[in-house]
Structure formats: C-alpha cells, structure tokens
Design goal:
- By secondary structure, the chain is an alpha/beta fold.
- It has a domain of 207 residues: Rossmann fold.
- Helix 1 crosses helix 7, helix 4 packs parallel to helix 5 and helix 8 runs parallel beside helix 12.
- The longest helix has 22 residues.
- The two termini are 28 Å apart.
Length: 328
C-alpha cells in the first residue's frame, strides 16, 4: 500500500515510518525538518519537505497515495490559539483538500483524548461521552475543531484516533516535562500519587494504526479511544521512571489545591512577563490531580486491537533508549 504520513519527522511519525516501511508498505514521509527527513530516507521512506499550510504543495505530494495518516500537529500546553488553529485546523483542511484532489479515499487522523479533559475525575470514558466544554487548552480546542472538519468531509472515509498520554523512545512531551520538574530534586504528587491515568506506549498506538489499514468497511468513519488499557497510578509510573534512570528524586505528597494554585500563579507570571512556556500550567496541574481513564472496547471490537506492550515494558524500553541502548 502507498501510504503518506504527515508529521513524519515527529515522535509518533518516525515510529510509524519505521514500522510501516518494514511491513512492506511504500511510505511517503511529510515534514519540515530536512535533517530528520534524511534519516527517514535512510530507513526506506521517501521524504518530501512540505508545510501543512501549503495547500498546493500537499496536493502535489499526495499524488498516487492510497491512504494518508495525518499525525502532524502543533502540540503544546502553551501558546496562542491562532497558532494552533493555523497548524491544526487549517492544516487539516488542507490535508482533506489534497486527499480529495488526488483521489485519496482514506484518512487516519491522530487526535487526542484531551478533548475529554474537564478538570474532573472521569473513569472509563467512551467515545460517545461528552467532550469538555470549554476545551481545557488551545491545543485541545484546535484538535477538536480538526475532528469536526474531518467528520463533515465528503468523499473520503476516515478514522479518528484519540490516544491518551503517548510515551516511548523519542518522547518529546510527557517524560521530558516530568524530568524538568524533577530536576530540582523533588516532585509534587497529588492524592498520595494514587491518581489513576491511562497512558499509551507508542508501539501500541502504531499497532492500532496498522490495524486501521486493513479495517473492514464498518470500522471506518468512527472515533476510537486508544490507550494501554491498564490504568497506572502516577506515583507508580514516576517510581519506575526515576529508578530506571538511576535518579534520586523525593516524592512530595502535595494537596491538589496547592498544585493548582501554584500552577495558576506560575502561568500568570509567565504571561505577564512574557517568559514563554512555564514549568507547569493549570492544564498540566489538572492532569496531575485528576483521575482519567478510557474505555477502549470499541478499538478492541471493531479494529481487533489488543495492547501488546505493557506500561512497565514500555518504560524499560524508553529508559534504555534514553541511556543510548541501540536495542531499545
């Protein structure tokens, strides 16, 4: 199959390129980082430097493809909505237009489970359950808008994936943020570190995308939650991470209202002084303080998804990669 992957030079995109290429698919990798693009070509992908905001460039790049995996996004907990809108909403509109123009009939879109997050405890969230109103961040709002553009599109079959907390070798979000806070020698954990969260090892998410490629007709035009299906306590995840890295970090049981209050003050200071992304925001504080787990029965039943790599094994592989182990 001839497959195009947007965001191919990113964390998830690079894993997709590697696995789908090894599976025998003809992979066309789209991104803006030419250096990383050359590395993908070394792995067998055909790299095309293109910006999602370049509608004509995308249309030229999509010619001859059978399916597009849209994994590109401006992903951050901080920033102006206009920037997220331009990248994530307008970019998605351009992807849809290029698909229609080139006769690409199938699109797999990697969205985010953050669309559900409303600063409250929520367990076993299903795809038909309410999304957060208002959205908890500019990023989340833009991802939900992009979903709506896809669902309203005509002439193309789509699958929307909502993964929760992607981590693994090359992670640029979850683990780096945890370690930035932990570098002071202590880490605040709400509710005694017993907050239950769902996470997704990147290899399991790649497996879901693989399953989409051969999904039956009834599995298309659907939204799917994706996670490891094994909720983990924040304290347990933190312990495994720092112990694996050999770090000495003291866990501090901290009242949720103190974490939220500190995040509010830090965020206000960052905005007022224009300091850039703060070490913690109200959104990330909320994630530390609230239980959130997903129901992944739909992906199991319609796509045949069965998580293959556990949280513990995923963390071991991630730690090995961080230490420079080539076999990670």
């Amino acid at each position: 199959m001839k497959i195009g992957i947007t965001g191919a030079t990113g964390f998830l995109g690079s894993h997709l390129c590697a696995v789908l290429g090894k599976a025998g698919h003809e992979v066309r990798a789209f991104g803006r980082n030419r250096g990383k693009g050359m590395a993908l070509e070394g792995g067998g992908a055909c790299f095309v430097a293109v910006d999602l905001r370049d509608a004509d460039g995308l249309a030229a790049a999509f010619r001859g493809l059978d399916l597009v995996i849209h994994a590109a996004a401006l992903s951050a907990v901080w920033g102006k909505y206009e920037s997220f809108y331009e990248s994530n909403v307008v970019g998605t509109e351009n992807v849809l237009a290029a698909c229609r123009k080139c006769g690409v009939g199938k699109l797999v879109y990697v969205s985010s489970s953050s669309v559900y997050f409303d600063f409250k405890d929520r367990f076993s969230i299903r795809e038909e359950d309410a999304v957060a109103k208002p959205s908890p961040s500019a990023y989340t709002r833009s991802k939900l808008e992009a979903e709506r553009r896809i669902q309203a599109a005509t002439g193309i079959d789509w699958i929307i994936l909502r993964p929760r907390g992607i981590f693994g070798p090359g992670d640029t979000s979850i683990i780096p943020r945890v370690l930035r806070i932990a570098q002071r020698g202590w880490f605040p954990l709400a509710r005694k570190g017993e907050v239950l969260v769902d996470l997704t090892y990147v290899g399991n998410l790649v497996r879901v995308v693989e399953l989409c490629l051969t999904a039956k007709a009834g599995a298309w035009n659907q939204v799917y939650n994706v996670s490891n299906g094994e909720p983990v306590a924040t304290g347990d995840f933190f312990d495994q991470l720092v112990e694996g890295l050999g770090l000495k970090v003291r866990k501090v049981d901290t009242a949720a209202f103190l974490i939220r209050g500190a995040a509010t003050l830090v965020e206000l200071a960052a905005k007022g002084l224009r300091l850039g992304e703060p070490s913690i925001t109200r959104y990330t504080a909320g994630l530390l303080c609230c239980h959130q787990t997903l129901d992944i029965a739909k992906a199991r039943n319609l796509l045949g998804y069965a998580p293959e790599i556990s949280i513990s094994e995923g963390l071991r592989r991630t730690v090995r990669a961080m230490k420079g182990d080539a076999d990670a």
